[in-house]
Amino acid sequence: MMFDIQEELKKLPQKPGVYIMHDAKDAIIYIGKAISLRNRVRQYFRPSHNEGLKKEQMVRQIARFEYIITDSELEALILECNLIKEHRPKYNTMLRDDKSYPYIRVTLGEDFPRVLFSRQMKKDKSRYFGPYTSGGAVKDTIELIGKLYSLKTCNRVLPRDIGKERPCLNYHIHQCMAPCQGNVSREEYRKQIDKVMEFLNGNYQPILKELEEKMQAASEDMNFEKAIEYRELIKAVKQIAQKQKITSSDGEDKDIIAMAADSEDAVVQVFFIRDGKLIGRDHFHVNVGSEETRPQILATFLKQFYAGTPFIPREVMLQEEIEEAEVIAEWLGRKRGQKVYIRVPKKGTKEKLVELAAQNAHMVLSQDKEKLKREEGRTIGALKEIGSLIGLEDLKRVEAYDISNISGFESVGSMVVYEKGKPKRSDYRKFKLRTVTGPDDYGSMHEVLTRRFSHGMREQEELREQKMENDYGSFTRFPDLIMMDGGKGQVNVALRVLDELGLHIPVCGMVKDDNHRTRGLYYHNREIPIDRHSEGFKLITRIQDEAHRFAIEYHRSLRSKEQVHSVLDDIPGIGATRRKSLMKAFQSLDAIREADVETLASLPAMNQQSARSVYDFFHSTAVDGNKVV
Q1: What does DSSP say about strands 254-261 and 115-118: parallel, antiparallel, or unpaired?
Q2: Mean pLDDT of 520-540
Q3: Which residue among 274, 322, 379, 616 is the one 20 to 30 A from 526 at the CA level?
Q4: pTM of the model as a whole
């Protein structure tokens, strides 16, 4: 059914909500919110309305729009943030990188709590400290806490598992009190946890005093090695303490946010102040249009940044006023559970901090401008170069394939994916050949491609039946270009598979010279030479090397598994857990062979059926007693 934009504009309600713009391919290209959907969406289609070149280009591509009504502007803001984060539309101002900050998590919900590294702050019984700006500093702090307080780090469930297994290495190096052995009561352990939380809250004096007393006592007892250990721990505690730079005395949590921008890019600098201490800073690159104002960029940044971080400070200090300050502050207050203030300081220390953040943003923008251009040349620019060589526009997703075997042994296939010139490792796939035996690269490639695209077509059909076109399975997205590791023969195999499946996807081969170095592309029955110094050539080489590396790595892992194969793996019903139980209970295969069914069934993880399976295997099959188990 055709979508009549003018007719649909008449149906828009005079209510707050979120509008979603789609292009001709039904991709979401823009998401916005409005106090009045009718007034805001109609503005885009008025000839006299001007929102800049970027919005003009977007409006020309709109094939249809949809909208979601909300009860308030605040609800519209929350929904807009969620949808932008999920769909990342082309014409929305976007953060270039999503960052998550580490926390230190104390698992107070456990009888014997642990101190862990965490990237998320969940609503559980744990106590979280942070966020911190350096993952390395968090790991150093957790390591120091282990040396100071000797806490449990394993995931044994206590008190249920007390005494079931031997204590781990940490106990023997005096970094765990071994509650798993019943060496410490729950109450005594909790006292240590209370000290840890005091330490993480920034009160270092009690532990420093305790360590100094122990160092002095060890020195008086002539135990100089122990005294040196305490001295090094004192030094480590002081280093952690010195990383916290005092910036204010009110002890509150604040984020200081300022930006620098030119016609194409913006850098937003954030200073993180926690408990009155500057714990670090970070910067973010933002894609912007020339018509976007500084307040608009700041408002967009606030919504996207705080939509993705679980910690909300009490106060956000900005460089300049923004239009949506009240509704954003209300949204942040709901997330925090307390009122949040958005302020623009005009004088004093706070104003100087904002000015310092702005200076840092200007410095990063100038320093990173050339670096960003070089990176774009290596990725998106290189992909455009490849597209121009073979006459394809708007290349985004490329898939490359390779086959690996040694004289036909354990043939495997690899699929690597590059999006916008960068590897997308989450979409890599590996194939263990099922129908081809021996060194048949063409037959192997035919199987790999058939399995890959048949699977993808099935997933697409399932999503259509469930009306979930915007969801993507592992194979659902098809590439804009297939790159084969080889020339005419491999390309023809790929084209034959696509023809059999009724698909139309461009295919080119990455041709190598006699020295096994990439020399050009094979496309439409001809070889296209490439400038060896160009970014496009370098990207082709990286893609080809990556496909080869991924296939070799998988093949190597299969060969390793084959070499350590156990006789016990051949027994029906015996998996890794039961095999481990048998190996712990018996010293050799001969001992297992001599055991009766009752003895085997009495072992942990075994039952009567699995015991009978082991017994029958050894008494009806000739087993080499010298084979490695």
Answers
A1: unpaired
A2: 89
A3: 379
A4: 0.45
